[in-house]
Fold each of these.
Amino acid sequence: MLELRPTCENCNKPLPPYSLEARICTYECTFCARCVETILDNVCPNCGAGFVPRPIRPSKNWKGDNFLGKDPASTKVRHLPVDPVAHARFSASIKAIPPEKR
Ligand SMILES: [Zn+2]
Ligand SMILES: [Zn+2]
């Protein structure tokens, strides 16, 4: 199940489950939209893949116990700020490779 992490890994901005600003990579690395756009250049500093908007898990039990009450968001903060210079080098090297070979 998707781990709903509580903050942006770079700037530590709160990203509650209903946030429309949360972005995730395929490994659930979680950042805010601003960091993804302005610092990360849509390249995950941990795995080198891209980001998509994180889906919202319902707070209400609309159907079948599939909601936050049963499957709550994570409270474990992962705050590992990125070195912008090193990341710019990393993202440029990734983006030089065709998507099918990344
Ligand atoms: Zn951020
Ligand atoms: Zn990642």
Amino acid sequence: MGRFNINLNNTNTYDAIVIGSGMSGGWAAKELCEKGLKTLVLDKGRMVNHIEDYTTMLKDTWDVEYRGMVSNEDLQKQQVQARSGYISAFSKDFFANDLENPYQEIQRFDWFRGYQVGGRSLTWGRHSYRWANKDFEANNRDSIAIDWPIRYHDIEPWYSYVERFIGVAGEKRGFAHLPDGDFLKPIEMNCLEKQFAKEVEQKYKNRYVIMGRVANLTEAKPWHQALGRGPCQNRNRCGRGCPYGAYFSSNSSTLPAANNTGNFTIRPNSIVHSIILDESTNKAKGVRIIDAETMKVIEFYAKIIFVCASTIATTQLLLNSVSRNHPNGLGNESGELGHNLMDHHHNVGAVGIFEGLDDMYYKGRKPSGLFIPKYVNLDEQTKQKDFIRSFNYQGESNRESWTRGKNEVGVGAKFKDDLMKPGKWSLSIMGYGEVLPYHENKMTLHSELKDKWGIPQVVFDAGFKNNEWEMRKKMKADAIDMLEKSGFKNIASFDNPTGLGNSIHEMGTARMGKDAKTSVLNKYNQLHHVTNVFVTDGSCMTSANSVNPSLTYMALTARAADFAVSELKKRNL
Ligand SMILES: Cc1cc2nc3c(=O)[nH]c(=O)nc-3n(C[C@H](O)[C@H](O)[C@H](O)COP(=O)(O)OP(=O)(O)OC[C@H]3O[C@@H](n4cnc5c(N)ncnc54)[C@H](O)[C@@H]3O)c2cc1C
Ligand code: SF4
């Protein structure tokens, strides 16, 4: 796999600029380049070339210091990122340095970031689910916030388009509330997962347990192979970068596809400070960057701009793009920019031990777990009196390994024999619930505090409310009930609320809507008031649903790129 093109042209002028090269920026780059636009991608972080820069992908615990744990010195730099539980010697370099990227919390907000080429597409959990039509209708039905300007049929072909390219392993089940996709063969459940699925489906009328639908190649189709991607080896080390390109990331998939067109240029270490407006036409004419290493300020120009810096970073830069025409931030005529910040709420569920299946085991470490689609507030029969919207669970089942969770010390044949025997089976499920789009949940820019590059710091003031707290009670009670009814013992429940952001599904702050008076973007992710700027990351979301959101960002990005290029051809932009 060749390296990405980093050679800039002489004029700093391109057809399109894409800000950010993560999940959504990668898709914008691929689509715009494939449609013939000379495209410059600007990313704040360092270059990460596919495979050659995955420095820990083949390392084992004994190959690194401190058995893979992070030193206190390193931890000082990533105290916020460590709230995620994902920081280890193998992953830490794909998470941001909190000292260099500070922010302010009026209420706790867990902002987990990946500042590098590829963004968090390198570290994501790969769970990929479609939204159903009812999810797009939800705000309208409940008369809260504003209505989505699109419905399922608008995005359905783009879901298929994205799924086919990225490769999603999944099983078709025909659920109306969790539409099937264009799937590769599913990852297989282990024996306890199969048994749990059978028990739950027998004991409850409308609850189903399926294998998580994940962007891992259970089979590599010709279009995957053409990009050098091969089938997954079940190592479950995806967050380090995959030597087989077997999970979807920008670095393994969209950026190489863009690079292959000859239309692609990427400039890492380029922190976009603001979008430059041509005040006479009220169109964006380019962007102003700060070189992260030299601190030099440089301008780049283009006909269209895709802002894909991730939910909060995108709105930070739009709020920082002030001009006479847009004194409150670019495209912020509605005053909604920064508001309606959402995430999912999680860390509530239960774990149980299963006695039996002692003669069964499994092979490999599959990179996915269980998924229980939502089952409450789907209709009148499942309507809840204490909360609106719904939740789903993710889970997994394992057999305790030879360590049994303790560091046993001993000698002799019996001790060694005992170590060879696997322990008991356990299964855990954790809920992910919808967070409503509250206007008062917001991010703003601090009037004085700046980061080391002179960019105003983000201030978060957002939290969960009664609807989320009530929903959590049911999430916990149902988790216990499902394990009990399926024959588990020693069931331990947990409910550890976090700050907003901890699910790493931050959404909103530049929502889509039909009316420019109450929303920032139109139905094609185009700024209502600056029509050659498109925002296609999670900032655009009008509500949050309860499923992992990145598939929807990717589908919306591909759809918006298609629209932008056709408008450009019609000379409408
Ligand atoms: C551990 C983990 C597990 C996850 N699991 C899942 C999952 O199972 N399913 C799911 O759907 N989602 C999951 N997510 C969330 C998913 O990673 C994000 O939703 C997705 O990456 C967002 O895509 P994005 O393009 O908006 O942002 P990112 O992928 O974060 O990319 C943003 C890019 O913009 C760059 N950038 C930021 N600011 C600037 C600037 N000012 N100028 C230039 N560039 C800038 C960054 O360097 C970065 O490369 C997970 C995330 C993590 C970390
Ligand atoms: S589990 Fe599969 S996708 Fe993940 S790193 Fe291993 S081979 Fe790659």
